[in-house]
Amino acid sequence: MAYGPYYYITDWKNEPSQETPINRTNLLKIENGIKEADNRIVQIDAKKAELSLVNTLVKEITLDTDSGIMTVKQQNGTVTTYDLAIEKVVANFDINDDNELVLTLADGTQKVIDLTRFVYGVDSTATIAMKILNRTITAEIVDGSVTMAKLDASIQMEFRQYMLDAQAARDMSLQYQNNAKTFRDQTEVIANEAVTDIAAAGGRVDETLTEFNTLLMNGNFIGPMGPQGTQGNQGATGATGKQGPQGIQGIQGPQGLQGERGSDAVVTQANGSYAFQVRDNGHLFVLFSDTSADPPPVRINDSGHFIVRLGG
C-alpha cells in the first residue's frame, strides 16, 4: 500500500528562547519518527521484488507494422522477437461470380474458398420429410408412414393385444352369425310345419262343421221331450204406476240414401232356436235371440276344440 506522511519536523528555537525545549515530549516525537521509518523500511524490504525476477520483466516492446515482427526487451537487456504473421491476416474479402469466397491477405495474396463446403444438403425419406426454410432445418413425420416396427416395445405389445382381442371378437361374431342362420333355418322349418298344421286344422274344422250341420239338419241332436214340471204359485201383482204425459212429436226428417247390399252369408238353422254363420273373414258365429232364456249349447274349450252340448 502507499504510505502517507507521518513525521513533521519541529522548528527549533535557539537560546534564550524557551518555545522548543529539549524535553521528554520532543525527544519521544523524534524517537517515534525514527521507529516508524524503521517499520516502513522493514515492510518495503519484505515486499520488494528479487533482482533476478525484476531482470526478467519487460522493459520495452516494439512492433514493426510492415513485417509484423514484435521485439520484446527485458530489464536485464535480453531481446526476444515474435513474428505475428500479420501478412496472413485477412485484409478484405469478396464473393466472385462462381459463388466462391475470395479472401485477400495483408501481403496481397488471395485464398479462394468454395462456399458449397459450408452448405449441408438434407434428404427426405418415406417416413421423415426434411425442409430448409430461412436457414432452419426442420423434420416432420409423414402422415401414415409410421410402421409397427418404429413404435416403442410397450406400445407394440398393447397394439398386438388389441389385434388379438379384435380377432377373438370377430370369430365370436362369426359364430353368432352361423348360430343365427341355423336358428333362422330351424324357425323357417317350424313356421312351415305350423302353416301346414294350421291348414290341416282348418280342413278338419271345415269337415267338423259340415258333419255337424249334416247331423243337425237330420235331427240327430233332437232328444225326447222330458216330463212337464209342476206349475209354481202365481206371485202377487204389483201396483200400476201413473202414466206420464205424452211428449210432442218431432218433425220427421228426410229419408236417407239406401246403403249397399251386403254379401250373402251362410246360415244354418239349429232346431229353430240357434243359427251358425260363417262370415267372409272365415270366422264361425252363433246367432240366437236376445229373448232366449238358455245360452247356446256350444263352446270352445281350452284346447281349442269346438264342443256341442247334447241333451241338456
Descriptive notes:
It is built from three helices and 13 strands; from the N terminus they run ααββββββββαβββββ. It is of the alpha+beta class and 312 residues long. It starts with 23 loop residues before the first helix and ends with a strand. Strand 9 and strand 10 form a beta hairpin. The strands form five sheets. The protein has a three-stranded antiparallel β-sheet, with no helix packed on it. The longest helix has 65 residues. The radius of gyration is 71 Å and the shape is elongated. Helix content is 30%, strand content 22%.
Task: Reconstruct the topology from this structure.
Layout: H1 24-47, H2 51-55, E1 58-64, E2 69-74, E3 79-83, E4 90-95, E5 100-105, E6 110-114, E7 128-133, E8 136-141, H3 153-217, E9 266-270, E10 274-278, E11 284-288, E12 298-300, E13 306-308
Antiparallel strand pairs: 1-2, 2-3, 4-5, 5-6, 7-8, 9-10, 10-11, 12-13
Strand tally, please?
13
Strand content: 15-25%
Largest sheet features = 3 strands, antiparallel
Mean pLDDT: 81
Share of helical residues: 25-40%
